[in-house]
Design a protein that fits this description.
about 325 residues, Rossmann fold, 7-stranded mixed β-sheet, 4-stranded mixed β-sheet, 11 helices, 15 strands
């Protein structure tokens, strides 16, 4: 079992103990995880099918109260109906993301103050992307902000950001998966200030092989010969220059270990615009150290805060 898989399994156990995950949901998650570590085809299929059915069943149990008959409506944040898409894993993934993205927005009126977030963070799978701390941390979105969503998936964070920044703001949703991009297009149709960008972000402009697990948790691999699986990677610095971007206020990143390469390709953006950063740091053990160093090398004015699974950085 990889370190990341072990960490996610441990987090799942913690969520069960804190009442944030149904027991049957945990069993489904465990079945799906263990299916990847058996070489017996029959057992692998049985575990995967059982795990997926349990996850989707519990996703419906948790999220259908937000379904308005055509789409999901998380208190003004709209996402497409993924219950019957090409992969049921999308619905399970949306349920998995609910606590990190929508629980505070829907159930606590968007209050990201540390007095609320600190205790809740211990029970979340990965932790919220927003945080208002006791020492000047103000990791939130404001009306009119320009946002980069690196690893947009179906647009869950992008939709929340588009809702929060309002008509005067703009959100650029970077998603390299061609399959998931079809769902992202539906999400962008709900928001005129949300623009999908069919690229991944890295430190080089290149084509790289991409493995999609059908649920949107894609992984970049070494370049191969399968042209259908090749995705375009671009540097954020180059994209911003080519598209005449005059400001970037916020960057969110959850890109399966590519976060450090994304930052390397965004040094000019960090230097010139000083955007607030909210980045996942659980993919590699040295993520906190490496990502923090790249940020400060790019712009020494940043203040970097490492929390449980997220790195926040801002220019005071």
């Amino acid at each position: 079992m990889t370190d990341t898989a072990y960490l996610k399994l441990r987090n799942a156990i913690s969520r069960v103990l804190h009442g944030e995950m149904y027991y049957s949901e945990f069993v489904g998650y465990a079945c799906l995880q263990f299916s990847g570590y058996t070489s017996q085809a029959r057992l692998k299929k049985m575990l995967a099918d059982q795990g997926l059915n349990l996850l989707v069943g519990n996703a419906n149990r948790r999220l259908l109260k937000y379904f308005d008959g055509q789409r999901f409506d998380f208190k003004g944040v709209f996402l497409p109906d993924v219950r019957f898409g090409p992969s049921k894993l999308l619905m399970a993934g949306l349920s998995y993301q609910y606590n990190d993205l929508f629980k505070i927005h829907c159930e606590y009126a968007g209050d990201y103050s540390y007095t609320l977030v600190d205790p809740l963070d211990l029970r979340y799978s990965e932790g919220p992307y927003f945080y208002v701390g006791p020492n000047g941390e103000n990791i939130i979105l404001k009306s009119g902000d320009v946002v980069i969503d690196a690893g947009a998936w179906i647009g869950d964070f992008s939709a929340l950001a588009a809702h929060l920044v309002g008509e005067t703001g703009k959100v650029y949703a970077f998603e390299p998966s061609r399959q998931i991009a079809e769902w992202l297009k539906v999400t962008t149709s709900y928001y005129p200030n949300l623009i999908s960008v069919p690229y991944g972000l890295g430190d080089l402009n290149q084509r790289i092989q991409f493995h999609d697990d059908q649920g949107g948790t894609g992984t970049f691999l070494n370049a191969g010969t399968n042209q259908d699986a090749l995705c375009e990677i671009i540097r954020l610095d180059d994209w911003a220059q080519d598209n005449k971007i005059t400001k970037v206020d916020f960057i969110k990143a959850d890109i399966e270990g590519m976060e450090r390469k994304m930052l390397m390709g965004a040094k000019r953006v960090l230097q010139d615009f000083g955007p607030t950063l909210s980045i996942c740091t659980y993919h590699f053990p040295d993520d906190p150290e490496v990502l923090g160093r790249i940020i400060l090398e790019s712009n020494p004015s940043y203040k970097v805060i490492q929390r449980r699974h997220k790195l926040y950085a801002f220019v005071p």
